[in-house]
## 1
Amino acid sequence: EPEVTQTPSHQVTQMGQEVILRCVPISNHLYFYWYRQILGQKVEFLVSFYNNEISEKSEIFDDQFSVERPDGSNFTLKIRSTKLEDSAMYFCASSDRRHQITETQYFGPGTRLLVL
Amino acid sequence: SQQGEEDPQALSIQEGENATMNCSYKTSINNLQWYRQNSGRGLVHLILIRSNEREKHSGRLRVTLDTSKKSSSLLITASRAADTASYFCATNKAAGNKLTFGGGTRVLVKP
């Protein structure tokens, strides 16, 4: 069964450093998302991406964040200058809107980011 | 309360019992999705119910949706120890839009 994959599974970085989190969405999906979950808290939406551009973003997704789909398979989240409060589990998700029944968002296993 | 709030926050049951958890939301939705998360791991999609549906089943799962009350319930029948996890509801205003998650219900199924 197709699945969303994410790398790395864990990342430790120093405050102020740039990190890139990588995701490979399900191959025929058209919508891509990033969410994050701070330990013990709710899953929060960051950004959605469709047709090579951001379709929606939350207030969390400030100028320090960017997303890119550099090729036909990868979807990346970059944090330019990490802060302590960026420590969280980051989830990538994808969905396929072409078929009426497929609004389901499928999530990857997550990247646990720890900023020291 | 915020969009997508579950109750109870935690639930402890014996194996074989049923587990019921509820989710309330505030704004109109296109669909509502339930996810499971094992400790520290990814989100596994369980079931999606659309705003024009009232009930759906998938295996041992039964989901109801009452749009007049803006609430949904997830029932797990004949629970197993492997059902121990956190369960989240997430609302979606339209396909392709963001999911808004609740705080989750932590379910412990004791063998």
Note: Chain B touches chain A at residues 30-31, 33, 35, 40-45, 48, 88, 90, 92, 95-104 (CB under 8 Å).
## 2
Amino acid sequence: DTEVTQTPKHLVMGMTNKKSLKCEQHMGHRAMYWYKQKAKKPPELMFVYSYEKLSINESVPSRFSPECPNSSLLNLHLHALQPEDSALYLCASSPTKRSSTDTQYFGPGTRLTVL
Amino acid sequence: GQSLEQPSEVTAVEGAIVQINCTYQTSGFYGLSWYQQHDGGAPTFLSYNALDGLEETGRFSSFLSRSDSYGYLLLQELQMKDSASYFCAVRTAGNKLTFGGGTRVLVKP
């Protein structure tokens, strides 16, 4: 199994809703990442988890709350989002974040629309 | 902080060769990665250069000059399926990836 899966593929939510994005990998990777990508823009790093611990938070607003319940699973909890948060949310994983030749593998993303 | 510059768009015909340049300014450089992303798809890893020189993977090659803070991706024998966006990304401590703005490659028959 060499892929990162993400659910749901599409999500539409109101500004008062609470929803969660899910990411899963079974490659034994110990680092997992959340990125946000707006249309025609590059991915922007949001969070990094290493060995199930949050290691990097790129000053992301608290309405985005990440969670790593185990080494295969990464969640992103969403609450009170704004329309400008509409974007493609990408999950990635890599073997570790310590190797100098580490490669990040991306999931297909969740396309989020906030009304 | 990090900043990367790459051309916004390149158009070429099938069978041609395309070179996408990437210049960067960064603190704490580990290497330069290249990703391909088709419309509506996920970024797919193409290559990684940690040291100066050329890395070849099939039709795609990537080059890095650390002293010039410069790299490029070379796409050879272009095919229609190569129409996509290509991102360079610098890798810094903590395996952080910072992406360039992306180059949209359009391959025409």
Note: The mean pLDDT of chain B is 94.
